[in-house]
């Protein structure tokens, strides 16, 4: 029987023994197959992404009646007697308010004023939002359109809703996913920066409804709600309709965390 | 081996090694991104980058961690160990892309510093369900950064091999942090039997290989010398040592390698001064004991690296009687000349 050669590999010396070469080749081949398998498993097992859109590279100019109940929105005419209320947001994880300061300083209250804004649209499932990145692109066109601004109307005095509190900017398009545990820290940062909290509910048929969250007096909530963001929760309060948006007016102390996995879409 | 520090002492084997690292990374990214875009096209570019590089880093970390025990179990795997640091640095860069994009995406552009936001945006540190998993990934990234940035012989020399080794053993702590980061983060939001299963399988492979390698080393450590008279301890029969190779023995709790070459015997410390490699698993090449890990060399009769290199290891005195090899258990100062004994 032929004695096997005493192979010894030295990295800085060219050449490699036959047995060593064979082992290394087998390892590399196995490694490549493992890499393909791991990539396939991680890629195939991702949850479905929703078809939300954030037009980061495109700006759109919209015009409508500004109102804040309590969150900045623009009521935009989309057709004959049809309107859409677009939620206004700032750049990054901030509200729209810093970008409206300039025209507020010039004209005082701007509620009920006709305003044009150029920004990036965010939209999903019937809701539209607009990111403002430059206060120079906010123009006051006309004051005194208050009669066109939507008025909140109560549709239920006390209602319980199960869902997850999200930041609408990420949820409706900027991030995928913009919900759940992975996104929770980001949502907390967005809401603490002034972006309105929104409750997302989902029924058994995965049909979602969205509720802007305010305190019991209809005032904005931000920091007080942070511990509940991104967790399935039970909220109870008055339901208010603001044309194509709902609001839930709550006492944050009554929010109950539910020990459930997130089901929202 | 090198006298002066250079960024990389390139040679043919390192180039081939790096070429295959590049190919592996490319194959992974093409597979992950291709499958995601084809089957889940509503993804965003940021999410694609975060997930592709995060999962790539995990895959590379598993490969890095199996190479060590494989090379201890079978010397045919030693070429994989030789340039493992490049694989480690590649893994860190993949983790950095994942971590950097995640910090920018989730924790930047807000009303507080991104790192402060990362640590404080979710304060449920007392809950396993809601635990801020990002913090675990962040600390793992810091460890990987420390390892990658010191992954050069300059740092090995200046930190001392012992400190350097301790620092680089933190890779196991980083691995634990990364596993928890994934299980308390991604797997909570999108649990899947296959993806959880493959990480558990990876853990079993890594743990098993380390245990088997450790078992092999405990058998070596069980090869102790036996007391005899006059302070000399019996080591082995001269025929037990292969030509140009060594046998490793525990002498006074230290591993010693007894080499046979050119019809003579010499004994030196088993621990290479470079990264603590097992010199006794090396070979006499060009008259020098050559470390199996990175090819550091020592003259067997004095434990000194041949000039211009300056590394030195302890030497031991041997004697031979009736084909039986005996050793004086007290090590001589590093680099002490000891006349080889003739067989």
UniProtKB/TrEMBL annotation, chain A:
The chain crosses the membrane at residues 27-45. Keywords: Membrane, Transmembrane, Transmembrane helix. This is Uncharacterized protein. It comes from Aquimarina spongiae. The lineage of its organism: Bacteria, Pseudomonadati, Bacteroidota, Flavobacteriia, Flavobacteriales.
Automatic annotation (TrEMBL), chain B:
GO terms for cellular component: membrane. Residues 233-327 form the Rieske domain. One of its GO terms (molecular function) is metal ion binding. Keywords: 2Fe-2S, Dioxygenase, Iron, Iron-sulfur, Membrane, Metal-binding, Oxidoreductase, Transmembrane, Transmembrane helix. Gene3D superfamilies: Rieske [2Fe-2S] iron-sulphur domain. Its cofactor is [2Fe-2S] cluster. It holds the Pfam family Ferric_reduct. Belongs to the bacterial ring-hydroxylating dioxygenase ferredoxin component family. This is Ferredoxin subunit of nitrite reductase or a ring-hydroxylating dioxygenase. It comes from Aquimarina spongiae.
């Amino acid at each position: 029987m032929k004695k096997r050669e005493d192979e010894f590999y030295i990295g800085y010396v060219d050449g490699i023994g036959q047995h060593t070469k064979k082992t290394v080749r087998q390892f590399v081949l196995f490694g490549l197959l493992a890499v393909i398998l791991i990539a396939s498993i991680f890629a195939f097992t991702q949850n479905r992404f929703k078809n939300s859109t954030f037009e980061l590279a495109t700006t759109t100019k919209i015009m409508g009646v500004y109102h804040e109940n309590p969150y900045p929105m623009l009521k935009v005419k989309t057709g004959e007697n049809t309107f859409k209320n677009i939620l206004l947001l700032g750049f990054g994880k901030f509200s729209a308010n810093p970008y409206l300061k300039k025209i507020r300083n010039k004209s005082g209250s701007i509620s009920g004023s006709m305003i044009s804004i150029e920004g990036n649209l965010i939209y999903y499932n019937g809701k539209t939002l607009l990111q403002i990145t430059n206060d120079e692109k906010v123009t006051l066109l006309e004051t005194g359109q208050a009669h066109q601004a939507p008025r909140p109307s109560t549709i239920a005095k006390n209602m319980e809703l199960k869902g997850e509190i999200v930041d609408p900017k990420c949820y409706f398009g900027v991030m995928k996913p913009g919900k759940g545990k992975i996104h929770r820290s980001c949502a907390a940062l967005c809401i603490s920066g002034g972006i309105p909290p929104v409750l997302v509910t989902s029924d058994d048929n995965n049909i979602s409804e969205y509720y802007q969250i305010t305190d019991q007096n209809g005032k904005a909530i931000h920091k007080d709600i942070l511990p509940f963001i991104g967790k399935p929760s039970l909220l109870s309060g008055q339901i208010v309709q603001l044309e194509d948006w709902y609001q839930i007016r709550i006492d944050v102390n009554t929010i109950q965390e539910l020990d459930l996995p997130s089901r929202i879409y | 081996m090198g006298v002066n520090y250079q960024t990389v002492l390139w040679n043919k084997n390192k180039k081939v090694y790096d070429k295959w690292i590049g190919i592996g990374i490319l194959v992974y990214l093409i597979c992950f991104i291709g499958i995601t875009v084809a089957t889940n096209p509503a993804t965003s570019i940021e999410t694609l980058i975060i997930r592709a590089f995060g999962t790539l880093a995990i895959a590379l970390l598993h490969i890095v961690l199996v190479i060590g025990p494989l090379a201890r179990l079978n010397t045919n795997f030693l070429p994989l160990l030789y340039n493992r640091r490049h694989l480690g640095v590649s893994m860190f860069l993949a983790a950095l892309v994942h971590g950097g994009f995640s910090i920018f995406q989730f924790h930047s552009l807000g009303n507080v510093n991104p790192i402060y936001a990362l640590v404080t945006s979710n304060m449920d540190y007392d809950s396993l369900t809601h635990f801020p998993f990002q913090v675990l990934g962040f600390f793992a990234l810091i460890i990987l950064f420390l390892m990658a940035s010191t992954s050069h012989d300059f740092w090995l020399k200046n930190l001392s091999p012992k400190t350097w080794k301790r620092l680089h053993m933190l890779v196991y702590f980083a691995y634990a942090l990364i596993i928890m980061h994934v299980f308390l983060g991604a797997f909570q939001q999108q649990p899947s039997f296959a993806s959880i299963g493959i990480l558990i399988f990876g853990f079993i492979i890594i743990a098993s290989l380390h245990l088997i390698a450790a078992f092999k080393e405990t058998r070596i450590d069980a090869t102790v010398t036996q007391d005899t008279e006059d302070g000399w301890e019996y080591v082995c029969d001269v025929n037990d040592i292969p030509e140009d190779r060594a046998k490793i023995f525990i002498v006074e709790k230290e591993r010693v390698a007894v080499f046979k070459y050119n019809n003579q015997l010499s004994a030196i410390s088993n621990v290479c001064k470079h990264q603590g490699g097992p010199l006794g698993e090396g070979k006499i090449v060009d008259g020098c004991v050559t470390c199996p890990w990175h090819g550091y060399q020592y003259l067997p009769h004095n434990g000194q690296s041949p000039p211009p290199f300056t590394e030195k290891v302890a030497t031991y005195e041997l004697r031979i009687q009736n084909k039986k090899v005996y050793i004086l258990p007290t090590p001589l100062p590093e680099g002490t000349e000891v006349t080889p004994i003739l067989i």
